[in-house]
Amino acid sequence: MLVVPDDPAHAVVSVVVSGPTVVPYAGMVDGAPERIFLSGFLLVSTVVVTDPDLGRPPIVLIDVDVSNVTGTGLNTGTTYIASGSQHLTRPFVAFDVVDVTFAVSPDRQGGRLSARSALASVTLNFNVASGALVQAAVGPSVNVADSLAPVAAETVSLGAVESLAVDAPVE
Question: Which of 32, 38, 106, 163 has the smallest number of CB atoms closer than 10 Å to its CB?
């Protein structure tokens, strides 16, 4: 015999939303057919979810949108555009680094057929007590094949630029 209570249990879930945070961005994609200097901004949104009823550790849902990044080919002057966003689910911790891959392609008819992969490292700092995103830093893009090359970083606190160190050699 199945017994069903008159008042079904209700799950309590706590949600803290931060964002979107605008993070200025600049970087370089290396490799053939040419180096591409990228600039613009990323939109980083976070949602912290806790489940006190079941005692599960909190998670953070992260959305990184790169569609406001454009580039210029250093040899040809070709305009490039970045596209896409990544939706990630991560354990909620005070400090986290996520690598975001995205496509960079010439801004012309059929340009997506010549798309190249790029990678940006996004560092997130949270206030663990409140769940708020307090700082976001983005390392410059690199060609995925060259992703082990050292990169400079750009740090942003609550949308205000603290420092910028980007190597943008002119060829």
Answer: 32
Type of residue found at 14: S
Q: Are 19 and 46 in contact (CB under 8 A)?
A: yes
Does the pTM of the predicted model rise above 0.90?
no
Cβ count within 10 A of residue 152? 15
Rounded Cα distance between 30 and 136, Å, is 24
Domain map (residue ranges) of the chain: 14-161
What's residue 90's pLDDT? Answer: 95
116 neighbors 105 (Cβ within 8 angstroms): yes
1: which 2 tokens? 């015999």
Tokens of 10: 């209700």
28, 149 in Cβ contact below 8 A?
A: no
Give SS3 for 121.
Answer: strand
